[in-house]
Amino acid sequence: MISDKMAELVKNGSAIRAMFEEGKIMAEKYGKENIYDFSLGNPSVVPPENVKNAIFDIIKNEPEKVVHGYMNNCGYEDVRGKVAESVNKKYETNFTENNIIMTVGAAGALNIVLKTIINPDDEVVLFAPYFGEYNNYLSNYDAVPVVVNPDFERFSINFDDFENKITNKTKAVIINNPNNPTGVVYSEKDIERLSDILEDKQKKFGTSIYLISDEPYRELVFGGNYVPYLTKYYKNTFVGYSYSKTLSLPGERIGYLVVPSEIDDYEQIFGGLGVANRILGYVNAPSLFQKVIAECLECTSDLRVYEENKNILFDALTEYGYECVEPKGTFYMFPKCFTADDKAFCEKAKEFRLIIVPGSTFACPGYFRISYCVDKKIIMNSLESFKLLAESFK
Question: What is the Cα–Cα distance from 159 to 358, expressed in whole angstroms?
Fold first, then answer.
């Protein structure tokens, strides 16, 4: 008999994965080319050639016992040092290997942070709409999610509600920038105000409030937009990063966590994170791909494809009458449904062979997410279906 907590997780499942699986069933029935699956954030562009070359070179030239062996739970020291140098070069920071932990993707980074800092019933603030898996991560450690209501005008931070939601039980705040599902990029002004509020609340309650920045889409920004590096604004910040999107390596599960030396209780926390990596079952991040990304730190996949997809889709949908805040990054779009029942709307979309995800999955009913990291041909062929879907509600 499985645990009560797991039984609940199985019952609720993942709406995104469920839509993805349903899309595969529909593809078998109608033909893959006739199904427009916008459910999953699975990169459509291939990894850069440097990744393949690095794999071959490492396998050929490095000792097998090193490449495939255990290392420090925090990762290879030389890899962590190279990651720190790369971050410093890009964002004018001052990190060393002792500020970097190699992780099993950004999800692994978030989970080892939560495992390290959370006591049961600690509160963690989330900004709706947000990636629904955060709820499951918090449940793992018996934390209490506290949801800040959306700012529907810009899908930025609802600062008034945010201030009201912070209490003496608040242990952490999770921010995702650029944001999944909206594609919004929080501006420097937003980050400065966020930081000021957190500083004031720490003084008021005499507590440490940690900001956890989830940044797998950091390089995926459009039109010259800039993503502020949060450790430069608020010292109690963790930054989780993943190469899933920028190097198109989601299945390799490789990323890192930045832990500034200035963070409250740094020594204890850094030690705890290494232990968390071990006891959560990761033990360490994948050894080969630690070595691989160390050779590809200045590379990305051809991310221009996503901006082109965004422009085509956004222009068409707004022409058809969809209301949507224009994405400034990621490969997601979050239009408003033509009915308040977003789940019913997404069911209706299937009649037009569109696979989209209800906004309630992201704590924001009445909207839906499109993941446009697909071939341009799918975008073009789907436009008539989006038009017919809109017309069916008029």
Answer: 25
